[in-house]
Amino acid sequence: MLFFVIRRFGNMALIMVLVSLAVFLLLELTPGSVATKVLGPYSSEEQRRLWLEAHGYMEPLWTRYGSWLVNFVQGEFGQSIRFKVPVSDVLWPRLWNTTILGFWTFAIMIPVSLTLGVLAGMREGGLLDRAISQISVITTSIPEFASAVLFSSIFVFGLKWLPGTSTMSDGFDPLQLLLPVMVLVVYDFGYVTRMTRASMAEVMTTPYIRTAVLKGLPYRRVILRHALRNALIAPFTIIMLQINWLLSGVIVVEFAFAYKGFGALLLEAALNQDIYVIEACAMVAVFVAAATQTLADIGYTYLNPRIRFK
Amino acid sequence: MSQNAIPPVLEIDNLGISYFTRAGEIPAVKDFSLSLGAGESVGLVGESGCGKSTVAMGIMRYLGSNGAIVGGAIRFKGRDMNELNEAELRQIRGSEIAMIYQEPMAALNPSLTIATQLIEVSMTHEGIGEAEAHARAIQVLADVNLPDAERIMAAYPHQLSGGQQQRVVVCMALLSNPSLLLLDEPTTALDVTVEAGLVRLIAGLSEKYGTALLYISHNLGLITDTCDRVCVMYSGESVEEGTVNEVFNAPRHPYTHGLFGCIPLPTADKNARPLMPIQGQLPLPHERPPGCNFGPRCDHFGAGRCDGDEIAMQAVSNSGSAHRARCLRWHEINWDLDIAVETEREEIPVGDVVLAVDGMQKYYAVHDRSIGAWISGKGVRYVKANEALDFRARKGETVAIVGESGCGKSTFAKVLVGLEASTGGKVRFDGDEIGQTSVHDRTSEQIGSLQMIFQNPDETLNPSLTIGSQIGRVIRKFGVEVEPDKIRERVLRLLDTVKLPRDFIHRRPRQLSGGQKQRVGIARAFAGNPSLVVADEPVSALDVSVQAAVTELLMDIQREHGTTLLFISHDLSAVRYLADRVVVMYLGRVMERGSTDKVFSPPYHPYTEALLSAVPIADPNIEKREIILEGNPPSVIDQPPGCPFQTRCPRKLGPLCETEAPPSRDAGDGHVIACHMELTGLRQVEHVIRFSNGNGVAGKE
Amino acid sequence: MIELVKSILPAPSKVSALVRALRSFALLRESGVGMVGAGLVLFWVIVALFAPVIAPFEPNAQLLPMAKPGTAFPGGATFWLGADQLGRDILSRIIWGSRTVLFFAPLATLCAYTVGIIMGLAAGYYRGKLDEFLSFVANAILSFPVLVLYVLVISTIGPSGINIVIAITFASAPGIMRIVRGLVLDLRNRDYVAAAQTRGESSWYIMLVEILPNARGPLIVDACLRLGYVVITIGVLGFLGLGLPPPDPDWGGMVNFARPLAIVFPHMTVFPCIAISSLILGFNLLADGLREISLRD
Question: How many Cβ pairs within 8 Å bridge chains A and B?
Answer without folding.
Answer: 83
